[in-house]
Every structure is written in structure tokens, then in C-alpha cells.
Amino acid sequence: MPSIQKVRFNSTEGKHTGAGKATSTNLFNDADPNRNHMFEYSWGTWLKNDEIEKQKRLTKFSIQGLNDLIKRIISIEKSGVVNEKNPDEIKKIENIRVLSNNISHFFKDSKSEDNIKQIVSLHEGKHHRIYRIEIEGVEKKLVLRLPYTLHSQLFTKRKLESEVATMDFLTNAFNLNIPKVLSYSGDYDNFVGHPFILMEYVDDVEFSLMKKWNPLMESKDNRLDDPEAIEKLNEVIEPLADFNKIVTDFIFDNYGSIYFKDDCPEDLEKIAYENQDRWVIGPTVETAYYRNRKYVKEEDLNKYVGPWKGSEPLKMIKDLVELELHSLKVRLSLVDSGEVTADTKEGLEFCIKIFKKLDKIAGEMFNLNENETLIPNLNELLKPRLFIGDLDPMNVLVRSGEKGYEFVDFENSVVKPFLISSYPKFLEYNGAKIFNLKDEIENFEGLDEIEQEQYKFMFKRTRNQFLWEVSINKRSKDLVGVISPVIKLIKNCYLNVLNFKQPKDSLYIENGLIEISTMWDNYNENGVVGKFKGEKNPIKFTEDEIKEFTDEIREYEAENSSKPFIATDGWVPQDMFKRLQDQGMIVRDDEKNEWTVDTEKILK
Length: 604
Description:
Phosphorylase Kinase, domain 1; Mito_inheritance_9; nine-stranded mixed beta sheet; mitochondrion; Kinase-like_dom_sf; Altered inheritance of mitochondria protein 9, mitochondrial; single chain; about 35% helix; 21 strands; transit peptide; globular
């Protein structure tokens, strides 16, 4: 009976505990306990709820089922079943889809009886796990990508199906270097026993572009115009800016996310663009629309997630705010009835109060009449353009020779107005801007070392974001208005809703509303904000409300700054966790069933 010769748990490049562990297992025995370790998460530890978080990231799948699927795909390619009249046909095998145009000639020298030879775990990411698949007698390798169970099955399915369609669109429309998908399924009920994407493995990769990214590199005299720093940083920023230029130049007909037509119910689809029927615009897959929706019925959710007409560029903001209000009210009713204890009535009522204020202007945050507004090239900024949610150097692979770059990871991609798009996460910075330390910071040289380092950090984050703005100006002058301070201030509330995870995060939304309120008369007079000309400020705050907000956000930020690893939601890379544990800086609290960090010891 054939068997997998070796299944490697994590890559040999992994440096965390357990990397490189290998085992052999019978190909047709999915019950073999010896293979369980290859499905378990090991690249980090959570200080709280570690077991629960790791269970969410368990990627147990059927190796035999995967083997059967690959055999079916090979048989399709070998038998010439591919539709000659429609070589781009998406074939259906139960709950699985096979992209005919991508399997052609992929298994050129293979035989249908070839079996999987080796499975290597390459990467355990934030949202998914990646395995490399090697097959007997087949030169080319495959990648199996499995999403973690972090959200609802509905969101997992939509996100995966939209990602595959987005990759297919970018490959076919622009001939970009993106791995070709052979097969996929957004369901658990399939041969593999898990939602998956099966795609080609790019084997001539030298390194990830992240290897070149040094966001905290020094600039001469702490100035923006240091040519050496600019050159080094642009080695990373420029390739991403070039890619972004290609992607955002294309104009769609509606707003939402890209799907294959057959994957999207007719009542949840709109035309992507004319004269084609392969892709449609369906419900958005931005995480904010699905986060914390455990108690929202699917039929209610679908009222707010799009797709949206091309004539309604700001309705996605209005719908997101109203969806959040609906969700908060449902949670509040469950707290009142005693069915839910994880939330507090006070916290939910505060959130509802803030979101009600935001709802008054959510659909009219900007005046859409180009003849009345001061925003330059408004019509260009409102057109439906593709926004890549995970545009990051980690997702750019540098290939050997002159082959250029390979782009991967298109989760959470959405078609939206460029006006309300955000900076790539690796460049995003919402703190105070500093462009020249010596000119802007009084007595900088006389400050103590800690204060100087804090200001240097702010300067470097400002510099990096500024270089992205320069790249937009160089490539897309019609879109550069998006960096206007006015636009940034107004859309700040919306961007904070996208990052809204827990009740106290509504303080950041309130902060944005207060900023808009203080500038309301000026913006209203100049026709910047929606259909409010001549109207009184609908989101006015009293002095007592502002004082209360100031105290609360200061307390919240102080609370967050005292929590180690808050930026990663308490996740610690495994090699760092082991080191800190050995040094006695991370200790087990058995009563609370969690890990605690000895901050005093770390500071020493």
C-alpha cells in the first residue's frame, strides 16, 4: 500500500521550537495519530486563551482526500476533458472547483496513478497555513493553503472564493505574476475536509521583499531628503507602488468584492464590468463587516454587505455603521436577557451612542457634487477601484534572475472609492507627524535619550508614509488628493470603524467625530461635507462630553501601553516566548490559566 515517504512539520527554515520535525504515515490512514502534529499550530503562543486560539488554527485535513483530488485533476488534464470551446471553463467536482485554464499542461509528464510523496509545512500565517505538496513523478510542486477557523463559515467561504476570483482576474486582465490556482473550495464538505486553495508552487524564489524592509533605518540629520535612506526604503515601496498603480487604474462598474459568477448568488451580485460574464461584484469581504457578528442572522447581515451600485459610492460606509448599530443592539438585548455575559450593558450603550452620532453623517461624509467641493478630482477619487487589503512586502516574493516579483495573498480585497482607501498596513501611521526633528522639536539635542528615540520613531513612521504619498503623486496625480489633511480627517472615523474590535475602541471613533465637529462650520461653508450646507452641526459635542472623552481615551491608551504584546493581541513568536520563559520574564499563572509578563524584569 503506497505511503507518504515523509511529512515534515514546519520548514527547515523555521527557527521556533519543533521546526523540522518529520514523520512517515500511511497515505490511506487519515486516523494515524502520528501525523496530528503537522496540523497543529506552533509558531507562537498567546498569553491568554492559548489553547482556544491554537484550536482555531488547527488545520486538520484528509491527506487521502487531497491525493484523490490531485488524481482527479490529473485525469482531467490527461483525458482532454477541458472544453475546447471554453478552455477557461471552471469545472465542478461536487463542492470543488477546478480552473481548466490553469491545469492545462501543468501535469504534462505525470500519470494518474502518481501519489503524494511529501508534504512540507512552509508557513503558519495570521489567517492561514501553507503546505508544499510534492507528487511522485511530477516535477512541479503545489501549494495547499488552508484558512484558519477564525470567523464564521460564511465569511471564510466568501473570503476564499473572492480571493481566488481576484487572483484570476488580475492574472487574466493584467498578466501579473500571481501563482495560478488549480482548484479551490470554500466548504468543509469536500475531498480535503477543509476549505482550501490548491495552487502552483513558485520554486525560483530567492527571498521575500520583507527581507529588505527596514522601517526604522536612520536618515542623515533626521531629514526627509536623505537620498541614501530614500533609495533603500524605495527598494521596497516602489515595487508595491508599481503594482498598486496597475491595479487601481482599472475602473469597475460597481462596489464590493470580486467573485466568479457561479460562486455568487444572483441576488447578491452586480456586473463587474461590461462585455464579460466570468467575474461579478458580490458582497464585500472586508473583515469589519463580519467581525463580532456571532449573534447577527445571515439574512440580516446580507442587507449591509453589498454589493453597491456605482452611483452610490458612500453607501458602504452607511451600511457598515448601520450593521454595527444592529449588531450592538442585538448584543445589548442578549445582555439584558442574561443570555450573554461577555459584554457589559454600559459598554454597549456607550458604543451605540457613538455609532448613532456617526450614523447621522455616515452616508454624507463627503459632498459628491464636484462643482461645490474643494476636493480636487473628486470624480476620479470616487470611481470603483480595486483595493488590495494585504498589500505588504511580506507578500512579494523576489524571484531569481530577471523574473521580477511574484505577488501573493489577496485576502480582503475590495472594490471601493480610492477616496476612502487606507494606507498599506506596513506604512500606516496615525500619530503626530514629524518631518524634521531639529526644526520641529524644540531643544531636541537637549532631550534625554528615551525622549529622543520616541521622537525619532515618530519621524521615521512619518517619513515612510510620506514616501508612499510621493509614489502616488508620481504615478497617479489624479488620485493624490486623497492625502489631503481634510480628507484624512473626515474619513478617520470610517477607518476606525474598520478597526473596531471591542467597545472601548469606539473612543477612537468618537475622537474622529470630535475633530469633524470642531471643523464643521469651515467644512460646511466650503461644501466639503455631504448635503448639509447651511445646516447646524448634527454631531455637536458639549464641553462636558469632550472632557469626559479626553479622560477616558487617556486612560485607555495608558492601559494599552502597559500591556505587552497588545499590538499582536497577546501573541508572542515561539522563539521569543521560549527565550522570555527561560529568562523568567514570562511565567504561568495557573489560577487564571494564562501567561503573565514580568514587565519590571523586562524593563531592567
